[in-house]
Design a protein that fits this description.
Largest sheet: 8 strands, mixed
Number of domains: 2
Number of strands: 11
Helix content: 25-40%
Shape: globular
Structural class: alpha+beta
CATH class of the largest domain: Alpha Beta
Strand order of the largest sheet: 4-11-5-10-9-8-7-6
Distance between the termini: 25 Å
Oligomer: single chain
Radius of gyration: 18 Å
CATH topology of the largest domain: Aminopeptidase
CATH superfamily of the largest domain: Gcn5-related N-acetyltransferase (GNAT)
Keywords: Acyltransferase, Transferase
Pfam family, one: Rv0428c_C
Strand content: 25-35%
Protein name: GNAT family N-acetyltransferase
CATH architecture of the largest domain: 3-Layer(aba) Sandwich
Length: 223
Amino acid sequence: MHEWAARVARDWPAFEVVERGGWRFGTAEGVTKRANSAVLLAPGADPAEVTAFYRERGLTPCAQVWPGQEEADARLERHGYAVVEPTLVLAREPLGRPRAPGTTAVAAAPGADWLAHGPARVDVVARILGGTTALYGTAPGGAGRGCAVLSGRSAAVCAMVTAPGARRRGVASGILADLLAAAHDKGATDAYLCVVTENTAARRLYEGFGFTEVSAYHNRVLA
């Protein structure tokens, strides 16, 4: 299993994990590809196993493809799997303690304002994060939220959302700075996150905080 795939799976855990046929399968009621996809364990694994596993559960078959898995990528393509959402892994190493405004309410559990943002299945997102040790940050007035999952000396930034009416006002940068500072104070020495390659606005934000590319992957999804 690719090193970064293992870290991402650890910090965004699926509800169900099954290893068979050279794959590690995860499911979380279909919420996010990251928690509902197959990760390669054996180089010669058959994509038909991916199709069968997710079809059995009424979910869209999806597999992550990481660097060094080009042969598996070609097999998935031959089985009709299309590339979806190429994603970058960005890291800030060492983390340091950023200058933070201190305006974000940071807690060990998601509050009502935190749960008010995001996708329709934000309850499932909260359950996914409930399988981790995390810091939940909410901007004043519920203008946005984010999360930092703590694992050992690492912090994984995720679930960043800004309310539509509060965009381009520095809300996301304030949340990010406060979460990174809180993670640093909890003992984190590095931080990372995943961002869709085409999300240029988010990439500018993260790169402005010193995050640089350390890996990348894409999803292969069966139509």
